[in-house]
Amino acid sequence: MTRQSVFAPPHRALTLGVILSVSTVAFESLGVATVLPDVARQLDGLGSYGWGLSALMLANIVGTVLAGRAADRSGVRRPLATGLLVFAAGCVLAGTAGGWPVFLLGRFVQGLGVGAIMAVAYTVISLAYPEHLRARMFALLSSAWTVPSLIGPVLAGTLTEHTTWRAVFLLVPPLVAIAARLTLPALPAPATAAGQGPAGRDRGPLLAAGALTLGTALFLQALLLRNVPALVLLALAGLALAVPALRRVTPEGTLTLRRGIGAGVAVRGLLCAVYFGSEAFLPLGLQEVRGLGATLAGLGLAAGAVTWVAGSALQARRDSAVPGARGRGTALGFAVLLAGVALIALALASDAVPAQLAIAGWAIGGLGMGMAFNASTTDTLEQTPAARQGEVSSALQLAQTLATAVVAGLGGAAVAAAGDGVDGTRAALLATFAFTGLLAALGVLLAGRLRARG
To answer: InterPro entries from the entry (predicted)?
Structure first.
């Protein structure tokens, strides 16, 4: 190794620690999606299944904002250490939970840690690596999701079938401890002192993120109520908090789908609502409706991860060959994703259709997601001025997190309303996939708004 490498002695420990931190988050994320049906079944949580994902996603928003502000004020060491500790504590809490409410509390704590880790990881690269090594580290950070997404779901399913779902959570803290041991001592002095800001800095973004999280949580919880007047009142209160806050934390024109950056953020939200919202309920459908084991359900998620990479590479090649065609690439990606969701719905609708068709459908969906995600993100950031790159990147991530939480909550409410039994679960899941399919069709129509006129 040369000193020009991110694995050269001056950077090796930090590089390995950051990659391990992100890989552990990725493994936990995809592993839990695989085993969540088993957890909900054992802890009597199918009535609020969607909260198993929404709790983490909403806490993620808060963790991201808190860690970002802390890093600006006093450096990255403390928020990164806190994020790792909180993430590990959440895994222990969820992995030892004796009931669904405690499990959801563990998921919320995990989300705070995940938001902090992911927010600070990018800041660490900017502060701790020379400019000529940063692109390589950003690429490695992206690839840190690849291996966990390929083996994480299958490994989690195998652990659940042969030991217990609790192993998926309790294996994480030792990995976090190793990551902390590698990362924290390797942070250079400038990273711990840089970026100190005034304590009285504008708290608007923090308050808006809190209002958005609380409002969304109230809205999703309202959907689980059986008392209609209480449902309406709580849902309206949640929307009254969330919508103005969402307007505050996203670029102007996002909620009105204005051509250019605003539409780009909205398209990211739609894409992730379709993909991650469908992904959240694929294992439940395969296990509860079609009777497959956790390992095969995990294989379905892994298939989507593999083809996402392929779709992204395909779009990158197409982009270089046909410049300016990203809007069409995004529309095509949405259409392919829609076809994948339709195949999943077909496999769940009839026992006469092989259950493996759902896995094939998700492989097709992953291909479309890779195409559309690559094209829309590249087009949006290309139109963003240098001074607004951080703002728009954060808005894209926020749209992804919020959309996933909302669709998971809506689908979970459908499962709860359907009651017990395979037929009820089947109907709820078909309604959920019909909804994500409609969002994909809407994405096909909106893809043309990615590029501002002129």
So the answer is: MFS, MFS_dom, MFS_trans_sf
